[in-house]
C-alpha cells in the first residue's frame, strides 16, 4: 500500500546513494523500489535512476533525481530523537564523517545537502521542563554546542 503522504527529496543524480546511506545509518529505515527512466529526460538518460522509494526513521520518502536546479536548505530537516550519547555520537558522526558538515545546536548537513537535527531526548525534556529557570539553563547550554553533549545538558538541568 502506498503511503498517503510521502516526502519527496530532490537530488542531482545521487538519490540512490543517499537512500542507501540513510537506510544503513538510521534505525527503522528500509530501501524500497528503484525506478529507472523509460526514456531520456531533462537531467538524465533512459535507464538512469529516476526515483528511489525508501523509509528513513519510519518516514516514507521518495528520492528524485531531478538535476541541479534545486538544492536542499535548512528550511527542511529531519529531527532524529536519540536515547543516549552513544546513539547521538554514532548518528552525528555518520553524517559529518561521510562528507557532511557540523552546524550549531545539534544540527548537521549530510553530503547531499539535507539537514538533520540529532536531538537527544534529554535536550527535549530539558527545554520542556515546567521550571522556566531550568528551560533557560538548558537552552543556554545548548546554544554553545554543535553536537549535543547530554551530560552537559543534564548538568544544566540540575543547575
Notes on the protein architecture:
This protein has 159 residues and is an alpha/beta fold. 31% of the residues lie in helices and 28% in strands. It has helices at residues 15-25, 85-96, 121-127, 132-142, 150-158; strands at 7-11, 30-36, 49-56, 59-65, 77-82, 101-102, 107-109, 115-120. Strand 7 (107-109) and strand 8 (115-120) form a beta hairpin. The longest helix has 12 residues, at 85-96. The mean pLDDT is 96.
Please report the total strand number as a whole number: 8
The major β-sheet equals: 4 strands, mixed
Question: Strands of the biggest beta sheet: in what spatial order?
Answer: 1-4-3-2
Number of helices: 5
What is the percentage of strand-forming residues?
25-35%
The radius of gyration over CA amounts to: 18 Å
Integer average pLDDT: 96
N-end to C-end Cα span = 50 Å
Overview features:
alpha/beta, 5 helices, 8 strands, elongated
Amino acid at each position: 500500500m502506498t503511503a498517503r503522504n510521502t516526502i519527496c527529496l530532490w537530488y542531482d543524480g545521487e538519490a540512490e546513494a543517499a537512500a542507501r546511506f540513510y537506510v544503513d545509518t538510521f534505525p527503522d529505515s528500509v530501501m524500497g523500489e528503484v525506478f529507472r527512466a523509460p526514456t531520456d529526460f531533462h537531467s538524465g538518460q533512459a535507464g538512469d535512476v529516476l526515483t528511489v522509494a525508501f523509509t528513513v526513521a519510519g518516514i516514507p520518502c521518495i528520492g528524485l533525481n531531478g538535476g541541479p536546479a534545486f538544492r536542499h536548505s535548512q528550511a527542511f530537516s529531519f529531527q532524529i530523537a536519540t536515547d543516549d550519547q552513544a546513539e547521538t555520537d554514532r548518528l552525528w558522526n555518520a553524517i559529518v564523517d561521510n562528507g557532511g558538515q557540523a552546524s550549531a545546536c545539534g544540527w548537521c548537513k549530510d553530503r547531499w545537502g539535507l539537514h538533520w537535527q540529532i536531538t537527544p531526548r534529554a535536550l527535549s525534556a530539558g527545554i520542556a521542563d515546567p521550571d522556566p529557570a531550568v528551560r533557560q539553563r538548558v537552552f543556554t547550554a545548548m546554544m554553545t554546542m554543535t553536537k549535543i553533549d547530554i551530560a552537559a545538558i543534564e548538568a544544566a538541568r540540575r543547575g
